[in-house]
Structure formats: C-alpha cells, structure tokens
Specification:
globular, alpha+beta, Glycerol-3-phosphate acyltransferase 2, mitochondrial isoform X3, transferase, Nucleotidyltransferase, domain 5, acyltransferase, 19 strands, 4-stranded mixed beta sheet, single chain
C-alpha cells in the first residue's frame, strides 16, 4: 500500500501554515509547464504478472483481457447507488446501509475439514512422535481438536463484522481522501476466487495500516473475512473473545514449542491446518499515531496493489523442472576474489536468506527449497506491481545527481525526464497532475530533508541536507532501483571492466576508445550478479544468470550507452541473412544453458562494443553507476572494517559494530547514504556466504568469526579492491 496525495486537491487546500512555502513558489519562471500523466500513450502499463515459466496456465487464464482499459475505484466512496435503496434518507445513511448488505460467508464444518488434513491424521494414527495411537477413541480426539480450534478461532459474528466495517469506513473517510483500487486487478482476484479454492494473500506491509485496511478492502469487494493472527499474551480474555468474533486467530502457546518436543503435537498440527496469519498490532499503532496527529497532518490518498494470482498447485508441479546445478557463493566467488582462478563457474548461485522458522524446518529439504523459491517469486511480483511515488523520483535526483544542489528550473525538466524513463521501463507511477504542482508538493513532503533557497531572478536552489537527510533520501530512492536495476548492473560491470585500463578521472572520450568484448562483459556482469544479494536483484529462480546477462547487455544497447563495434573482416552484426542456426540452437529450451552449449557462444567472442560518445551518455552512465553505490560502498567499508572489528561476536553484536563504523565513516567522508543498519546486515550475510565470516553455534547463539582465508591483511585488501572496482566515484 503506497501513500500519496493528489496534487490538484492539495493546491486548493493550502492553509496558513504553508504561507511561507507559497511565497517561495509565487514567482513564475516565464515557461509553459506540461502535465505529467501516469502512462505513455493511451493505456496505463500493467504490472505484477505471474511467472510465465512456472505458472503458464495461470498467466494465460487468470488475466483480464481488458485490464488496461479499466480504471481505479474509490473503495471508501459509498453512495446511494451502492445500496439497494433510494431516497433522501438513504443518501444520508448510505454508509450504514452499505455495511448491512456486506456478504459474510458462513464458516461451516471447520472441525471436520481440519480432521481430514494429513498432518492431523498422522498425529491421530501415531505416525508422528507424541501421536494418540490407534487405540485412542476417535471421539475424544475430535473433542480435543474442537477444543484447540475453539481456542484459536470462533465463527465470525455477522452483526459485529458489519458494525466494525461501518465504523472503519467512517474512520478511513476521515483519514484518507480516497482509497484507490485498480478494477482490473480486482477482476483477476475475483476470477481466481470463482474456482472455489481458498485464496492465500501475502502482503509486503508497506504501511502500518495494512493490517486494518486490507481486511476492509477485501470484505468490501466481496472476498469474505480475512483471518488475522493475534498474540494471545497481549490481549485480555474479553478483548480476545471480541476479536475472535471479528475473524481473529489466537495461536496456542504449545504451537511455538520446538519441533522435537513431544508436547503439543496435535496443537501444532491443528494450527498448521487452520491459519494464514497477518499481524494487526502495527495497524493499531498506526491508528494511535494518526489520532495523535489529528488536525496537523494533511488528508492523503492510498492505493492498494494486487498482483496477478496464480495456482499454487500448478507452481509446485512446474517449478521442480526448473531446478539445475547450483553452488554456494563461497564456491563461485572466493577463488576469483583471492586470485586463485579467473573463470566463473557455469552454475547458478545458491543463496537463501529466508528465515528458518519452525514450520519451514518441519518440511522436507526439497519442499523447503520450493517454499524459499516461491517467496522469491512473490517478492518479485509484489515489487513489480507497486507504483513508484514522486518522493522516490525526487530523492533519486537529489541524491545521485545533485547532492550539492540544483536550481528548480532544471529540476522540473529532470523530474519529467525521470518519470518518463520509469514509464518506458514498464513501471507504474502513483501520481499525476501539473509538473510544477507535483514538484512543489513533493518538495513539501521532503521539507525536513531539503533546503530551499531563493536566488536571483526568482529561481530556487534545492539543496539536500547532510546527515540523516541523505540517509532518508537513500531509503526513498531504493523504491526506484528495480526500474533501472538492469542498466545499473551493466553500468557498474562496465566500470569494473574499465577500472584496470583507464583512470576513473579520465575523460569520457578516453574511456570510449576501449573495446569491450561480449565475453568480458558477460564475465563482469556475472561477477557482480553473484556479489549482489538476491533480494535486491529480484531474479526469479527459474531465470538463468546467462539470460539475465544478455538482458543487461540488451538494455545497455537500447538506452544508447553501448554501440556495436565491427572488427575488420567480420560479418556486420546486423547482417543476419547468411547466419545459420544449428538444429541444437533452434530446439534449445529457453534458459537451458549447460557446458555442452559452450560452442553456441563462440560467435560472441568476435563481438565488441564501445561506450557511446553522445553528449548525454556520460551523465546517464554516472547516474546508473551511483544507483548501486550505497550498497557497494557499504560492502567495501565492511571489508575495510574486517581488521578493526571485534570477533568473535554474535551476528547482532557485529552488525552493531559495523553500523557504528559506517556512521563514523559517513561523518568523515560524507557517505551518509551508506549509514544504514540494513546495509550492515546485508554486508554481514553476504560475507558469511562468501566465506569471509564463518559461523559456529554457542550457548549465547551463533557466533561469527573471521575465516582463516581472510585473516591476512593481503586477502582483506583483495576483497576490498574486488568490490571497489564496481564503484564509480
């Protein structure tokens, strides 16, 4: 759920608190400013489609053909037409009448359905430790299941749910201007619900209000009551009984016991069969914050994004066929970092950062891998379906192009340019309106992190504030990174390839002289892909790294940074008339690259590229390189910290050490965008996978210590230089 404000409505609702801000913007620039639209051409881009490789049937059948023709609906806009009644009294009571007409599906035969689940049957038959055995009376077991289920949940009360939906509707109408929901996305969810199978909804929790807003949206759209999990230790018995009637779930304490415990086996089996949890305390906290700031904050608009649904059964069948050979990051990258070899192994990287929770550990190793790769598919779809906000575009411009300041007249044009580039890459944006109003509103949202200075001729100078201001801008700019990630990876790979040939401070013309072979580009891109975390790359597990390398290279050519260089005596790259395709290449499945396919890439050895000499290329190249600079600089500083850190230490303790070092370095060198605790944790996890840090169990928890291969200062220096080759100053 993304928070945004309508620019046109906000310009009409200026109050006295914005008088100083209005005076800064009162002087015009004598130019005609165009309007910014959230789409190019006629239709808005569709985002968030499921994987065509793993779920081809869902990709085809659960897609609404006219989705791009459909617009948005305001979920909290309830009028007379939304009820069955008409009249002047209905117009005044339409919200209450609408809540009375909400469909609450009955919850029948829940104990019988749970008794039929495989996990419960295994416990009853004694096949699991702590089971009842064959001799126990099934009636007593059924009563025990009903007792456990009664502690977990209760049949929802339709009257309380309708009353709660009415109160929540009134609250949301006071807080938000509107709650936007794409009608095409909702059509796809309704189409999936018509199959009669249960829907499992996974949320990325972009807002603290998700726990309250999402159940209301789904109930208002006729999808039933969303079951939400609560912690029973934080609720009184009276509140617990009320929340059960509203669809709350309360997990018994036995469900949190370790898997090897003989107690609560039946309880854990019932819990796993009955729940799909989503936390709500964060929503209550958000409500308290809104009530505390009532009257001071401006009413805002929100949008709920829904990615394309897919069949989990279809995924489990097809996903297993996409598994190939994989190696750890230590096997792939450590020999290259230490200079022991130069060839990148032709295998995929195995890197799983999914938390190893109790239910996940209870699965087989093959099923655990299936769940972990499913989470990567879901994360990819959720990020791709989220709209880019104006604050992300403004933060990216100020952080990576104009840290020393920029005139507003120039910023207006670059804001429009970056918005258009985002739309060209198939991403959605969550704003529209007059360009000047959008920039004004965006800067007002960032007023705590930027400074506006009036200069000559009525122009304004926008300067980012140092310190925490840059850290906040870096956090906002991460929202835009997926749109330019392929080009950013390619630009940093080119930077690494040129690092040993041309001085970084050398002119662009000197760097454009160098010939870059396609094989060298592939190698540098692969090295950077292996170094970057998978939760940043958002690569689908069914996608080959070599396919992604070709995609990166194609993006660099399409955006005009690379141009093909024809070598003397070779056939032009555009001459495809005399090229012959072998039968093996013609019938090769997409993404199927093995050692036997190396002869198909022999033709790539004769392909060379140069950096384009167009006037816009140097600035765009630096902009793309700087998009990854916060993460890469944090990794490089983490390598510098290896000989200063106090090891052995716990993971949390060493993360705190590294974070303090990043903060101290930011004060000295000005790299405040790197002073992020999440970057410190990401660096530690990457170094652990790379074999720089090793982990051993201890009574206080897993302890980290420096591996023998990186105890020497020389190898630590090699690691730092390997990372810094991709950083463009």
């Amino acid at each position: 759920m993304d928070t945004m404000l309508e620019a046109r409505l906000q310009t009409k609702q200026r109050n006295t608190q914005n008088s100083r801000e209005t005076s800064l913007w009162s002087s015009g620039f004598g130019m005609k400013l165009e309007a910014v639209t959230p789409f190019l051409g006629k239709y808005r881009p569709f985002v968030g489609r499921c994987c065509q490789t793993c779920t081809p049937k869902s990709w085809e059948s659960l897609f609404h053909r006219s989705i791009m023709d459909l617009g948005f609906c305001n979920v909290i806009l309830v009028k007379e037409e939304n009820t069955r009644f008409r009249g002047w009294l209905v117009r005044r009571l339409c919200c209450f009448l609408w809540s009375l007409e909400q469909h609450i599906p009955p919850c029948r035969d829940a104990p019988e359905k749970i008794m039929e689940r495989t996990g419960v049957q295994n416990v009853i038959s004694g096949r699991d430790p702590g089971g009842a055995g064959e001799g126990q009376v099934s009636g007593l077991v059924k009563k025990e299941v009903q007792r456990i289920l009664g502690h977990i949940q209760a049949p929802p009360c339709p009257f309380l749910l309708r009353l709660f939906s009415w109160a929540l509707l009134r609250f949301l109408k006071c807080v938000f201007l509107n709650v936007q929901l794409h009608k095409g996305q909702m059509k796809m969810v309704h189409q999936a619900a018509q199959a009669g199978l249960p829907l499992v909804l996974l949320s990325t929790h972009k807002s603290l209000l998700d726990g309250i807003l999402l159940p209301f949206v789904l109930l208002s759209q006729g999808l039933g009551v969303l079951r939400v999990a609560w912690d029973p230790r934080t609720c009184s018995p009276t509140l617990r009984a009320l929340l059960k009637k509203l669809g709350g779930l309360f997990l018994p304490l036995e469900a949190n016991l370790t898997l090897d415990s003989s107690e609560g086996v039946l309880t854990r089996a019932v819990v796993h069969a009955a729940s799909a949890p989503l936390g709500l305390w964060t929503g209550a906290l958000a409500v308290l914050r809104i009530l505390r700031g009532w009257g001071r904050s401006r009413p805002v608009c929100v949008r709920v994004h829904l990615a394309q649904p897919f069949s989990l059964q279809e995924y489990t069948i097809n996903a297993r066929s996409c598994w190939g050979s994989r190696q750890t990051l230590e096997q792939l990258l450590q020999p290259i970092v230490l200079g022991q070899c130069t060839t990148v192994p032709d295998t995929e990287k195995e890197q799983e950062w999914t938390p190893a929770t109790g239910p996940l550990l209870a699965l087989k190793e093959e099923d655990q891998l299936l769940v972990r790769r499913l989470s990567r598919h879901v994360l990819n779809a959720s990020v791709m379906s989220s709209a880019v906000m104006s604050t992300a575009i403004m933060a990216t411009l100020l952080l990576f192009k104009h840290q020393k300041g920029v005139f507003l007249s120039q910023l207006l044009g670059e804001f429009s340019w970056l918005t258009e580039e985002t739309l060209l890459r198939g991403f959605d944006v969550g704003f529209s309106g007059q360009l000047r109003c959008l920039v004004q509103h965006t800067l007002s949202l960032l007023q705590a992190h930027v400074t506006l200075l009036r200069v000559h001729q009525g122009d304004l100078l926008v300067v980012p504030r140092l310190g925490p201001g840059l850290t906040h801008l870096a956090h906002l700019s991460a929202e835009l990174l997926p749109a330019f990630l392929s080009e950013a990876v390619g630009a940093c790979a080119v930077r690494g390839l040129l690092a040993g040939r041309v001085p970084p401070e050398g002119p662009w013309e000197l760097q454009g002289i160098e010939l870059l072979s396609q094989n060298e580009l592939y190698r540098q891109i692969l090295l950077l892909l292996h170094l970057l975390p998978q939760d940043l790359l958002l690569l689908q597990p069914c996608q080959s790294s070599y396919c992604y390398c070709q995609e990166v290279l194609d993006r660099l050519i399409q955006c005009g940074l690379l141009v093909a260089e024809e070598t003397p005596g070779s056939r032009p790259a555009c001459d495809t008339g005399r090229q012959r395709l072998s039968a093996k290449l013609l019938w090769k499945p997409s993404g199927d690259f093995t050692d036997s396919d190396s002869d198909d890439f022999e033709e790539a050895e004769g392909r060379f590229f140069r950096l384009s000499q167009q006037s816009r290329c140097p600035d765009f190249f630096l902009f793309l390189c700087r998009l990854l600079s916060p993460l890469l600089k944090a990794f490089a500083q983490a390598a510098t910290f290896l000989h200063q850190g106090q090891l052995p230490d716990t993971e949390s303790g060493y993360a705190e050490q590294l974070f303090q070092f990043l903060q101290a370095t930011a004060q000295e060198e000005g790299f405040f965008e790197c002073a992020d605790p999440n970057l410190a944790i990401s660096a530690i996890w990457t170094f652990r996978d790379l074999g720089v840090l090793q982990q051993t169990p201890s009574p206080a928890g897993p302890m980290l210590y420096l591996s023998p291969a990186f105890t020497s200062w020389e190898n630590q220096e090699k690691l730092e230089q390997f990372i810094r080759q991709f950083i463009c100053s």
